[in-house]
Amino acid sequence: MKSGTFSLSRRALLSAMAAAAAVVSFGFGTPAQADPLKVSAIYTVPVEQQWVSRIHKALNAAKERGDISYEFSENVANTDYERVMREYAENESDLIVGEVFGVERAARKVAADYPKTAFLMGSSFAPDGDNFSVFDNFIHEPSYLVGMAAGAATKSNKIGMVGGFAIPEVNRLMHAFMEGAKSVNPDVEFMVTFINSWYDPPKAKEASFAMIDKGADVMYAERFGVSDAAKERGILAVGNVIDTAADYPGTILGSALWHMEATIDHAIEAVKAGNFKAEDYGKFSYMEFGGGSVVLDASLLPEGTVAKVEAKQAEILGGKFTVTVNDEEPKSSM
Hints:
The protein has ten helices and eleven strands. Helix 8 links the parallel strand 8 and strand 9. The N and C termini lie far apart (69 Å). Strands 7-6-8-9-10-11 form a six-stranded mixed β-sheet, with helices on both faces. A five-stranded parallel β-sheet has the order 2-1-3-4-5, with helices on both faces.
């Protein structure tokens, strides 16, 4: 920078423009529009994968509103994740979003090296420094509710559960589901397995077939591929994170849904206001904030099941019932 001159950082410039817009709006007609925030995202799997698709959907919604510009990289290997993070930071992204479960240490070092950039990352650990916020899919509440439906629907009292990795993000959903099923059917038993992959539908499908062969008549589809096996064998399945009922008619009895809009919108507002800080965004996935919901197919459930689930949902939202958060690895009970 030449002597006697100065430059505004992108974030400072946005803050200044926002302040100017506020002045203009005070009796001077239509307020001026600040430039949209520059947001970048890094995904280790395709954006079609259910977990990442929720983040992608929320960011696209913000883009369509004109709040942000949005670019992303998908299928980024863990060994390449740090490089991509640094490239986006160097290109003056205001907010970088992603999931760093396999690259925690490297990702946090990048954030420390770029203190003026806001980072919002899916993580099993705590926020870090001044600019590294974390989020998680705390949809244990809808998982409990759809577990109630599954417990009521099973006739063999055997439910199969196929997960990606035995990490807290997955474990807590499985435990909540199991607890919900047990609450209406104490005799239900569970078969639990992990495929150790975030995206391997054939492997998840084969694991499901093995459980169905052992008597499971309801499958918990934490991964893609499980519902395909259920459809082929003519049994029921429970969806996770997204609603795939339209793709598997007559198979999906219900789903625990994750909505990332509240999480993303809070981060965008904080960056725009110039007060983004390192914090845990996990609470924005709770049903109270609109971060989770449950959808059921009454035609596939015993009479009265939907009413029971709705009553329990009202208790959760009214603060009269709390779903336990259990991050320990779930085990088979049969």
